[in-house]
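Can you give me the bound-state structure? Components:
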Amino acid sequence: MAEIVQLIAEKIHLEPLQDNLQDPTCGGMAIFEGRVRNHHGGKPVHSLYYECYAPMAIKVLREIAREAVQQWQLGRLSVVHRYGLIPIGETAVWIGVASSHRRESFAACQYLIEEIKKRVPIWKKETYQDGSHHWVACHHASG
Amino acid sequence: MIQVRILTFAALRELFGKSDFKVSLPNGATLIQLLEMLFGDREDCLQFLKRVTFAVNYEQVTPDIFLREGDEVAILPPMAGG
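Here's the bound-state model for the whole set.
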């Protein structure tokens, strides 16, 4: 089982993550990419700062990945979450899974992003175009 | 006495003004006692604490847990990854 699970401060490079999903036994692949968008609650967003509790965040990321692999018998998995200051349009989280059939990949991909939002100790602070800022309060408050 | 490390994050870190520090507690102290000691006179933080969860040594715990020498106690605001 080829598995990549990372928490990084640098820009996410997709090629190795996509390459990791190549597997002749897997006929289905699903990818979710979460990017920093330029608005929230009607206010124009300038940038997003992600703070994390790194040792616990990577531990929980690995736990969630293991759960998904076991529950849907995934053949391949790549999960990367970025932290630090992330400009508009750049990738904050990238999830890719591959399985024998499409149903497992869709379900696992959705499970991974929902559990990451709920359980991984990461917080984001939005800075708006007018210079004000706000800590996003809830895991379900953003996309 | 025991000594534990406290970590606060995000909005609570900014509100409380401290993020990584150590405190001494009596043997047998619980996380509840630690929270009273830290935030007992901080009404703003007490309001915020209604929405947080806790981890000791990277494991989620409930506030009635007994703390031990060298524990790393993290106070976690509602998570917002993704």
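A couple of observations. The longest helix of chain A spans residues 54-72. Chain A touches chain B through 31 residues (CB under 8 Å).
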